[in-house]
Write a structure and sequence with these properties.
three-stranded antiparallel beta sheet, binds zinc ion, alpha/beta, binds 2-acetamido-2-deoxy-beta-D-glucopyranose, 366 residues, nine-stranded mixed beta sheet, 11 helices
Amino acid sequence: MKLVLVVSLGVALVASCPFGDEEIKAGKRLIKTSFEEPGQWMDEDEIWALIMKHQNFIDITDHNFPDIKEGDVNVQAIPTTLRFQSTVNGLLGRTNITRIQDFVGTFSSYFSRYYQSPNGTESQRWLLSQVQDSIANYVGNATVNEVVHPFGVQNSIIARITGSDPTLRGEIVIIGAHQDSVNTFGALLAAPGADDNASGSVVVLETLRVLVEGGYIPKRTIEFHWYAAEEVGLRGSAAIAQIYNTNRVNVVGMVNFDVPGYHIAGRDEIGIYTDHVNAEVTTLLRLLVDGYCTYTWINKTCGYGCSDHASWTNYGFPAGFPAETVFHPLMHRPGDNFESVGFTQVNEFVKLSLGFVVEMSEPGSL
Ligand SMILES: *[C@@H]1O[C@H](CO)[C@@H](O)[C@H](O)[C@H]1NC(C)=O
Ligand SMILES: *[C@@H]1O[C@H](CO)[C@@H](O)[C@H](O)[C@H]1NC(C)=O
Ligand SMILES: *[C@@H]1O[C@H](CO)[C@@H](O)[C@H](O)[C@H]1NC(C)=O
Ligand SMILES: *[C@@H]1O[C@H](CO)[C@@H](O)[C@H](O)[C@H]1NC(C)=O
Ligand SMILES: [Zn+2]
């Protein structure tokens, strides 16, 4: 079953910003580059200067993050042991590296997926069609929504497999990735973004495809997110996390996949990022690598605002972030191309992702 809804999140968010009306009228954005500093109003050139020097940042113009204290984050659903090995192992055999390569090949062949470029809209429509095709023959109930953002032409996409248990279906497990790309030197330049972040997008898509083909029916609801506009301050994911916070959606665990594709010979390792994440989700990710992947894990950090998990952390949801251990040296350049992606490694992240959604999608029965 499939269904396409268009959800407009537009006007209310922009109107909710109490300060900076003049700056917003002047086209400026409130940009925060570290946990400590309060944010600065910047015009487009100033924001591009940050992108050019690979400075991570969060666009907080439309956001007033809640004050999250230890103990506020609901971690009750996060398991501390692996319980569904036979189910997960059955699904792991279904991942398809050729299909993963086909996706990354096409997605990275768009001239750019920059969120405000015409190709960024085209690539988003193609991704939407791939997601719709993926769920067409699902045995359970699945839907696809587009999320229209006020800031640009590229929509985020949310696919949802509805949980079979009437009580647990209100508890949401999320895997997400950003779909946009960027070229450091300008919006009009080539940005294939094969590793960053076509490879994260395909981890989420391949997980969905394998679950559908395996006829897997979760008790909790699983959502699959592809965010717009990550490269300009995590804007798509922050908009969605904000709505979920406002609507008190019970997100029981979130994992973000970004840049899983750059492999260094001899280093068969998954980076488990330990900053701006939830400790319980992070512990589970290590267990999942040990239990379901051929690779081993190492601890890493990536700093303030490095990717979309930060949006979920900022809104008080338990989120984790696994990625390549050394970032692609040609990130945000034309050299981040298909040839530079290690697909065996990407497949390891799909295995991790499958383990995550299955282990999270029902309470233990021990
Ligand atoms: C893997 O994917 C490719 C490309 O979509 C397809 O041709 C092939 O049949 C798939 N292999 C299996 C075993 O399903
Ligand atoms: C990208 O956009 C340009 C200009 O609008 C267009 O000519 C081209 O066909 C688009 N598609 C791809 C795959 O780059
Ligand atoms: C799918 O939805 C239908 C109608 O609401 C319901 O009867 C059915 O049990 C659902 N299937 C699953 C697997 O949740
Ligand atoms: C990784 O980080 C966790 C949590 O801080 C710590 O318990 C563990 O010892 C670290 N492991 C390694 C190998 O660094
Ligand atoms: Zn990037």
